[in-house]
Amino acid sequence: MTERCVVSREIDNGSSSSSSSSSSSGGDDELESSLDSQYTLSTSGLAETWVYSLANKDFCGDLMHWAQDVFDLEPSGVFPHVISMSYGVQKAPNFCLGPDVQRLAQDVQKMGTMGISVIISSGDDGSGEFFSDGNYYNYGLLAPSFPASIPYCTAVGATTFVAGNSGEQMAARQFGSGGGFSYDYAIPSSPTTLTYCLFNKVLWRASLR
User: How far is 74 from 162, CA to CA, in rounded Å?
Assistant: First the structure.
């Protein structure tokens, strides 16, 4: 049987390399990445799975290098058709600047034209994240999750699975979604009524909605 998880692509300063394995220091981030891989492999059958490793710690810069790596593979016809990203940052001035946000949004849109589905975690703590500290009304701005707030990806919130339960699983209440809010893109026309209904019921500053 062909091995399923055999390609690791390390993105560093715009360069990429392929190998059969990647190093592991055992940190929390790598433990979570390992769990993500297990979920992916358990549902992907015999599909080949690639693991991207972003090595620079420059989140937005790394993402742009990652996107370029995907585009470089297009002529060969061998590139991932579903990309799952379990990490993001809060859309704040000290993270991704406007030009970087627009560039990454265009890259994800281009991936869509290649037939690639981009699925991104919508975050753990809602649009306030650590800036809110649980008191949303004490702070002046929401901090939407990025890149989950890009309209060309599919943002997925947290779910909980109960062992031995074959019924419907519900979203985990302890994790609030941070996707769906953006300072760069307008609200889609389809959910406008529901969106404003929500805004009128939550504790937040109306001038910022």
Answer: 40
pTM over 0.70: no
17: DSSP letter? E
User: What single letter denotes the amino acid at residue 187?
Assistant: I
At 101-113, the pLDDT tens digits run 889 999 999 999 9
Does domain 58-208 match CATH 3.50.50.60?
A: no
Binned at pLDDT 50, 70 and 90, residue 138 comes out as very low
Whole-angstrom Cα distance, residue 188 to residue 190? 6
CA distance 17 to 123: 29
Question: DSSP state, 188?
Answer: P
User: Residue holding tokens 């390992």?
Assistant: 34
Q: Which residue has the tokens 């008191």?
A: 135
Instruction: Please tell me whether the peptide bond between 75 and the residue prior to it is cis, using omega within 30 degrees of 0.
Output: no
Question: Domain residue spans in the chain?
Answer: 58-208
- State the DSSP code for 171: B
Write the pLDDT tens digit of every residue in 67-88: 988 899 888 888 889 998 877 7
